UniProtKB/TrEMBL annotation:
The keyword Cell cycle does not apply. It catalyses: ATP + protein L-histidine = ADP + protein N-phospho-L-histidine. Its EC number is 2.7.13.3. It comes from the Bacteria. The lineage of its organism: Bacteria, Bacillati, Actinomycetota, Actinomycetes, Kitasatosporales. Keywords: ATP-binding, Cell membrane, Kinase, Membrane, Nucleotide-binding, Phosphoprotein, Transferase, Transmembrane, Transmembrane helix, Two-component regulatory system. This is histidine kinase. It comes from Kitasatospora nipponensis. Its main location: membrane. Residues 227-280 form the HAMP domain.
Length: 499
């Protein structure tokens, strides 16, 4: 079974569609052949039943008791007495081994009552040369069973039983005596030869000729239609092959149909957009990082090369302290770049209590920046957010570092929760952020003109990390106008988590 399944899955989609369509059409036409053949049989059967009824009427009118049944020349029949014995018959042989397999009707049945019955005949219960001689073994036949039209006297019954059939060789010398007056039950065989022949013709024409031809036609149509349906997929494949060679600006064609292939093409283009943006960001990050690293490396190299020229005049402790500061700055830059590259991978599971984390950070800033006043509105219930503490802590640390760098005297932090969101705002009374730069300030390596000096200026990654971490946690980071009219006002919106 597994081998057959593997072979089936290795076959092309077009071939599988054609084979499936062919099998479905064979099944459908096979059922149709059976139903149509049965319909043809049912259509011809009433005609045979009508002929049997006419024969039964003719048989009854032929009982003249002088020349009994001599003028009857139609379907095989049996005349059955009340005790189940046969008074007369033709085309069917009475079976001593299985007497009474043609039961008589009750005497109180109305005169002329007729019904169709199917009876299994024993193998020796019919004439092999008659209409029911299709098989050498027993078979089921359809009879018209009818109540006789008159009550026959004892003499009439004796005369009837004296001639058992229309053939002279079957005439008995003496009929049965002492029979009580009664009606006989007439059994006339319903000849279904024409009905069966019609069924055979329909089955042969549909089953042996139409079904194979129609199945091949359906398979061919399925092959062609599947090929046409898969043309957009082939176009997508060719375009993806070109994109794989470096043409990341290319997009796959989207077919006009609103089906799964169109949705696949649309999703592929969205993925390619993200891939192109990611590659662009990667190249930009590498270029910007290289540019940012050149300056401190050049300064560090110069600070070391110049004293080597005049080693006796160099202040080596001061040189080492300066080189150490530059090395620390390079290390911070490398750490920020590494965290920026791994932020989405390091989101992780768990929750962080922002209330406690903000309290700790503010206490640390009050110690490291004694010239500033840090205020906070943390009176609400403890607020938790999803994520790892190292990321959320870095987000809050960068916000407070940025505010501490530019604040004149005061930094304010506010923490509120509402409708499943946590809102973190940090406001300072510094020079603020111009309206045109409020979105650009979150880009990588962006530094405004006012923070170019080495004392206050950073590498331009602090707020970029804030936005990257916020987005990785499912939130946003924006800069808006300060409610006081001065300074910067940064707003972080994060989805609340359950502790």
């Amino acid at each position: 079974m597994l081998t057959r399944m593997r072979i089936w899955h290795r076959i092309s989609v077009r071939t599988r569609a054609a084979v499936g369509a062919a099998l479905a059409s064979v099944l459908a036409f096979g059922l149709a052949t059976y139903w149509v053949g049965q319909g043809a049989y049912d259509q011809w059967l009433p005609t045979a039943q009508g002929l049997a009824l006419n024969d039964a009427t003719s048989l009854e009118s032929a009982l003249d008791f002088q020349q009994v049944l001599v003028d009857y020349r139609h379907s095989p029949y049996v005349l059955v007495l009340a005790d189940g014995t046969w008074a007369a018959h033709d085309g069917l042989e009475e079976s001593p081994s299985q007497p009474g397999f043609l039961p008589p009707l009750a005497q109180d049945v109305p005169v002329g009552y007729a019904e169709m019955v199917r009876i299994h005949l024993p193998s020796d219960a019919y004439d092999r040369t008659g209409p029911v001689s299709a098989s050498a073994t027993g078979r089921t036949a359809t009879f018209l069973r009818r109540s006789g039209g008159m009550v026959l006297s004892s003499d009439q019954l004796a005369a009837l039983t004296a001639r058992r059939s229309i053939y002279p060789s079957d005439i008995t010398q003496r009929g049965r005596q002492g029979l009580t007056p009664q009606r006989v039950t007439t059994y006339v065989l319903v000849d279904t030869t024409e009905a069966r022949a019609a069924t055979d013709r329909v089955t042969r024409e549909l089953g042996w000729y139409l079904t194979p031809a129609a199945s091949l036609f359906v398979a061919a149509v399925a092959w062609l239609v599947t090929g046409l349906a898969l043309r957009p997929v082939e176009s997508i494949r060719r375009r993806m092959a070109a994109i794989g060679e470096g043409a990341f600006h290319e997009r796959v064609p989207v077919p006009p149909s609103r089906d799964g292939i169109a949705r696949l093409a649309g999703t592929t283009n969205v993925t390619l957009d993200r891939l192109e943006r990611a590659l662009t960001e990667q190249r930009r990050l590498v270029a910007d990082a290289s540019h940012e690293l050149r300056s401190p490396l050049a300064a560090l190299r110069s600070a070391l090369e110049v004293p080597l020229i005049h080693p006796q005049q160099a202040d080596w402790p001061g040189i080492v302290r300066g080189a150490l500061l530059d090395t620390e700055r390079l290390q911070e830059l490398a750490d920020d770049l590494l965290l920026l590259a791994r932020t989405e991978e390091a989101v992780g599971e768990g929750t962080v209590d922002l209330h406690d984390l903000a309290t700790e950070q503010l206490a640390e800033r009050a110690h490291t920046h004694p010239h500033l006043t840090f205020t906070a509105d943390l009176t609400g219930a403890p607020s938790t957010v999803h994520g790892r503490e190292v990321l959320v802590g870095r987000l809050l640390r960068n916000l407070l570092d940025n505010a501490s760098r530019y604040a004149a005297s005061t930094v304010r932090l506010t923490l509120t929760t509402a409708d499943g969101w946590t809102l973190l705002t940090v406001t300072d009374d510094g020079p603020g952020i111009p309206t045109a730069d409020r979105d650009r300030v979150f880009d990588r390596f962006v530094r405004l003109d006012t923070d170019r000096d080495r004392r206050t200026g950073g590498a331009g990654l602090g707020l970029a990390l804030v936005r990257t971490i916020a987005r990785s946690l499912g939130g946003t980071a924006t800069a808006t106008a300060s409610p006081t009219g001065t300074g910067a006002h940064l707003v972080i919106r994060l989805p609340s988590g359950t502790p």
